[in-house]
Structure formats: C-alpha cells, structure tokens
Predict the 3D structure of the following.
Amino acid sequence: MTDIADHADHTHHGYITEKDRYLNRLKRIEGQARGISRMVDDEKYCIDILTQISALKSALDAVALGLLDDHLTHCVVDAAREGGAAAEIKIKEASDAIARLVRS
Amino acid sequence: MTDIADHADHTHHGYITEKDRYLNRLKRIEGQARGISRMVDDEKYCIDILTQISALKSALDAVALGLLDDHLTHCVVDAAREGGAAAEIKIKEASDAIARLVRS
Amino acid sequence: MTDIADHADHTHHGYITEKDRYLNRLKRIEGQARGISRMVDDEKYCIDILTQISALKSALDAVALGLLDDHLTHCVVDAAREGGAAAEIKIKEASDAIARLVRS
Amino acid sequence: MTDIADHADHTHHGYITEKDRYLNRLKRIEGQARGISRMVDDEKYCIDILTQISALKSALDAVALGLLDDHLTHCVVDAAREGGAAAEIKIKEASDAIARLVRS
C-alpha cells in the first residue's frame, strides 16, 4: 500500500523527532480503551461510557492532527521541493487521509 | 457524576444483554490502539497510521451508537413510562452525550 | 418513509413551540451558505472559505442537536407512554438519525 | 486576517480553474439550506429534517475537502518551492483549517 513510504528514508518521517511524545500519548489512549472495556465489564452507566468514548475520539483526533501536520511539514514539503510528480502523489495521499479523518 | 445511574438497578442497563458482544468489540478496539502505538514505535508511514486512527474512530462510533440505542430503548423508555421528571433528566443526559459524540 | 409522521398530529412536533427560533437560525444558515458562494465567486482565500464552511457545519450541528432533543422529549416520550411497538420504531428512527449525524 | 492571501496573486488560488463547478455545488448547497428552512416552516417530521441536515453537512465536507486538496496542490506546493518560512506558515494555516474541519 505504501511503496512511497517503503522507499522513503524512515528517518525523514515527520513525527520521529517527537516519537516519545507520540508514544506517551498513545500509551494514554491504550489506557483509555482499556478503561472503557472495564466500564462495560463493571456494568457502569451507559452515559458515562459514552463520555469516555467521546474523550477517546478527541484524543485520537489530536494525535492524528499532529501526525498530519508533521507529515505536511516534512514529507509533503520535501516532495514539493524535489519537484516532479512526487508532490502530487503525496498530496493525493494526504487529502485522502484528511477525508477519512473528517468522515470518521 | 451519575447519581441517577447509581440508584438505578444495574441489571436494567440496556447493553447488559449484549455485554459479551460489546466486550469482544472493545477487545478489538484495545488491539487497534496497541497496533497504532506499535506502528509509531516501528516508525511506519504517517499516512498508514492515520488510516488506522480513522478506522479506530469508526469502531468507537459503532460501539457508542450501539450503547446509545440500547440506552434509549431501555433507560429512556422506562423513565418515560414511570412518568414524572425522570424522563426529562434522562433525555437531557442523552442529548448531552449525543452532542459530545457529534462534536468528537 | 414517514408514515409515522403523517399520521402523527403535527401540532405535537417537538420543535413547533420554538419554530420561530429555528426559522431565525436557519435564515442565518442560509445567509452563511450564500456568503460562502460569494467568497468563491470573489475568489477569496481558500483557508478563509474553509473557516466559513466549518462554522456553517457547527451551526447545522447546533440546529440538529436542538431538533433531536425536542424530538426525544416529545415524540419518543409520548410513544413510550402509549406503549406497544411505537416507542421501538421511534427509537430506531432516532438512532438511525443520530448515526447519520455522527458520521456526517 | 489573511495578509498572506492579500499579497498572493489571486489567479493562483487552486480552486479557480474549477470555479464554476464549485459555484454550482454551492448553489445546490444554498438550495438545500433553503429546503431545510421550508421543512421547518411546513412543520415536517423531525427525523426527515435531520436527514436533510446530515446530507447538507456531507455536501459541505465534500466542497471543503475539494478546496483543501486544491489549496495543498497549489498554494502549499508553490510556497514549499519558493523556500523560506512561507511553506511553514501555509502549512500551519492548512493544519488549523483541517483541525476545524475535523472538529466541526
């Protein structure tokens, strides 16, 4: 699915400089997911579970928007500077990812 | 936060009859969250991580919409039948939860 | 699609008591839509047009959440009190509408 | 608000080549907004109004995603090629717009 990614030098992924920060946020997100599971298992009140699901979705949006900004700043700008069709392909990919995010 | 929930008989929570199905879906969601963490740790391509985040958000929406439907079918209908202010309180709660979900 | 609506007494629609307030908000929404059209015609900056589209979506969400709350408070509660299958049908309808709203 | 836009040559706005197509879509969106107003005025069934609001939000998303793609393809790529801080500013703007869109 990502030939582009595979031939790209991984050290250029935009989020790498902030990798630890992302991993911490995703650790918290895993904890939130586990917490929701436990709430259902403990038969907690429906509305409280829904509140936690909304919070988890917002946390995921924050991570996604951060990754996307890093991606535009690094991969897309690099591709634009290289010239040729690379930038177009990267932007098509990014636009499709944004569309999935807006609709999810 | 949910005095209403606390004094409600827990066996009436709408989702309880489907508890195992919800727990299975939430197990998968936990796995998806762990997978996203691993993708960042393995420095996978940004766009592929975003695709997985969108998929996780959609999975969370599906669980939330199921829980909400169960809640309306059981708690809200029961409260409406009991009469009094109980139904109004339940609907205010549900409307607030729906608003958080629509905006998350 | 709305046999239920057609045989329901229209004066019971939840939003009717606030009809003027809804019509005012929708007048503003129409104005926002016209404004976005004008921005494209005047070749305004893309990002500013996107800001106006987000604002319009939020305004639509606010109207939708208001209508939904009115609907739950009136139609769904009434159906629940009448007993029978009416409440189930109403809740299925409402849940489907909520799902469309969450995903749009 | 958009000094950047003002000093940019308007003929470079990404969406200009498709201006007529956008104007047609926005004409339809204005019609949808007017239709929703009329439904409330005619006291139509709540759920049917909600369906039309969801459809209008999806139509707005489609226009926004199109404009954003055009913007990335033209303005952001041009700025990246010019070098300097211009690309960073453009990407910050675009990321903020995407965040507003995801959250609206």
Q: What stands out?
A: The mean pLDDT of chain C is 89. Residues 46-82 of chain C form the longest helix (37 residues). Chain C has one domain: 14-103.
